[in-house]
Amino acid sequence: MQPDDERWMRQALAVAERAAQAGEVPVGAVLVSADGELLAEGWNLPISLNDASAHAEMLALRRGGERLANYRLAGTTLYVTLEPCLMCAGAIIHARVSRLVYAARDDKAGAVDSVYDVIARPRLNHRVQWCGGVLEAEAAAMLRAFFQQRRDSR
Predict the structure, then answer these.
(1) Residues 57, 66, 83, 136: which is the catalytic one?
(2) Residues 6+ apart with CB under 8 A from 147
(3) Gap between the Cα atoms of 36 and 8, Å rounded
(4) β-strands 77-82, 38-43: how paired?
(5) Could you report the per-residue pLDDT of 57-116, keeping only the tens digit for each?
(6) Which neighbouring-strand residues pair with 38?
(7) What does 68-114 look like in DSSP terms, one character per residue?
(8) 57 annotated active-site
(9) Model's pTM, two decimal places?
């Protein structure tokens, strides 16, 4: 873990609240440059956008690419409140993100180290450094509360 990891993960948790307010699963992502500048944010919007690829990570990567006018995001760190899925892990690799920090593990679809280990595959031409479990309790509590509220409203 690095000194600013908790700070940026708190930002990602705040962004995740936007997803919850929109009725989406509360996942948030924040893309930060090597010099500590906020480049982009994203939060889950697949329901609102009718787009299965509109995960928080994907939206943050798209916005970061637009901001930098480059699909390669070398030197960046992506903070996300939930371990990325296969699609997002692939995009993180293709975008050449240097570092990934996530909060809660996803034991059903995680593609970093829970279900799959896509990021760590030795045959890939880009290696992403990663760290999991940063503010995990807060992120997991947010997800549990969201799904409990949905169950209660049925």
Answers:
(1) 57
(2) none
(3) 10
(4) unpaired
(5) 999 999 999 999 999 999 999 999 999 999 999 999 999 999 999 999 999 999 999 999
(6) 32
(7) HT-S--TT-EEEEEE---HHHHHHHHHTT-SEEEEEE--TTT-TTTT
(8) yes
(9) 0.95
